[in-house]
Specification:
Pnp Oxidase, Chain A; alpha+beta; GNAT_dom; 9 helices; transferase; Acyl_CoA_acyltransferase; six-stranded antiparallel barrel; Split_barrel_FMN-bd; acyltransferase activity, transferring groups other than amino-acyl groups; 2 domains; Aminopeptidase
Length: 418
């Protein structure tokens, strides 16, 4: 049975702040697995070198990625290369009342030993697959494996984890008692490594894979919704070209929060803004497709999503002019309302529209929503003027009758293109 701690040696035993030290094997493994990079220290020609590199842990061996032409990898070909590897996760900045007691919260691992070049092709392939899988479970099968040339150009160092120490600092400020009454702010600024919104490379049409999407509540997921007139699917940058072609009409953008996009790049910027809002949890955007032709015809969103209060708003909607006064907009709203009330248990759905946009107000009223009032100087228009916003809402008590009315209206409307 593997021991739960690493042995203490002269190199991994601290000479100060020993209360921060640990030799716990599970703690060391957890830090190494969470971190994406490390610092590899070694000596070349009598001088120190430190290189940043990628790593992955398999069992009790730490593997380090490199190039076959790099000096540490060349030095490791013979009897191995004495190295020191350091990994640090910064968890917070400590602001003390005194400058001396400013510090940081962190978790770190230092490993000493002799690293050897991995020459077994099967072991090397396993390590490189593990490196890719560390970026996202399933990524190895979702990408091309290395070919013979790429494998020949890639080197892997193996460092057995025998001489390892863990050092951590947690908690709050540790000021001197005499400084506690000083009139300076003191506390902790937490730090977290958080992923941003995935940015696809030029020409990529594949959707963002699941391992790159943040885990969200069902309220924040733009699940595909299907009707006889319209299909709603998660909005993506790949839709920008078709969306621009379908909505390149000044009248479509007349009452929106953006001016008419001059080109596809400008429409892509509008889409990117929606995706950024989705990443922040502020919006749930869908693209609208004609169910008959499959053409992209517009977009719509949820916003002000509040699972706790079981409320959501529908908006950021724009539809190409050829599809106005068809069943597409009505069915899209029906699908979104059904998702909110029937699937998620919403008690309230809200709409906001410019007080000048009478066409939108009539359309919302036809859905069965109730006008609740006017929010004065609520938002700025693209021209800088302040707009008054008319607010409508539908409650769960009103939904059953509204649903019957909407379904009857759609039953009398033939899908576009039929």
């Amino acid at each position: 049975m593997q021991p739960t701690t690493f042995p203490r040696t002269p190199r991994n035993t601290a000479t100060r702040s020993r209360d921060k030290m640990s030799y716990d094997r599970a703690a060391a493994h957890a830090i190494l697995d969470e971190a994406y990079d490390c610092a590899l220290g070694f000596t070349v020609d009598g001088g120190p070198r430190v290189l940043p590199t990628l790593h992955v842990r398999l069992g009790d061996t730490l593997y380090l990625h490199g190039s076959t032409g790099s000096r540490p990898l060349l030095a490791a070909r013979g009897d191995g290369l004495p190295v020191c590897v350091a990994v640090t996760l910064l968890d917070g900045l400590i602001y003390g009342r005194s400058q001396f007691h400013h510090s940081a919260n962190y978790r770190s691992v230092v490993a000493h030993g002799t690293a050897h070049l991995v020459t077994d092709e099967r072991e090397k392939a396993e390590v490189l697959t593990a490196l890719v899988e560390k970026l996202g479970t399933g990524r190895a099968s979702d990408s091309r494996p290395p070919n013979r040339r790429e494998l020949a150009e890639t080197a892997v160092l193996a460092l057995p984890l025998h001489e390892v120490s863990v050092r951590t600092r947690g908690g709050g400020v540790r000021d001197e008692e005499a400084d506690l009454d000083l009139p300076h702010w003191a506390g902790v600024l937490p730090l977290r490594l958080t992923p941003g919104r995935p940015e696809p490379d030029v020409g990529v049409t594949a959707p963002v894979p699941a391992y790159l999407r943040q885990a969200r509540s069902p309220w924040h997921e733009p699940v595909p919704l299907r009707g006889e007139h319209v299909l709603l699917e998660p909005l993506d940058l790949a839709h920008a070209d078709e969306l621009h072609a379908a909505t390149a009409d000044a009248e479509v953008w007349r009452h929106l929060s953006h001016p008419l996009p001059a080109d596809v790049a400008a429409t892509a910027a509008v889409v990117a803004e929606a995706l950024d809002a989705r990443h922040r949890g502020e919006r749930v955007p869908w693209v609208q497709r004609c169910a008959v032709t499959g053409a992209v015809v517009g977009t719509t969103s949820w916003y002000e999503v509040d699972p706790q209060r079981r409320s959501v708003a529908i908006g950021h909607t724009f539809l190409g002019r050829p599809w106005w006064r068809t069943g597409i907009n009505t069915e899209a709203k029906l699908l979104l309302l059904s998702r909110a009330f029937d699937d998620l248990g919403a008690v309230r759905v809200v709409w906001h529209t410019d007080i000048r946009n009478e066409r939108s107000q009539r359309a919302i009223e036809r859905l069965g929503a109730t006008r609740e009032g006017v929010l004065r100087m609520h938002r700025q228009r693209p021209d800088g003027s302040w707009r008054d916003t008319v607010q409508y809402a539908m409650t769960v008590d009103e939904w059953p009758n509204a649903q019957v009315t909407l379904r009857e209206r759609l039953r009398r409307t033939a899908p576009v293109g039929t």
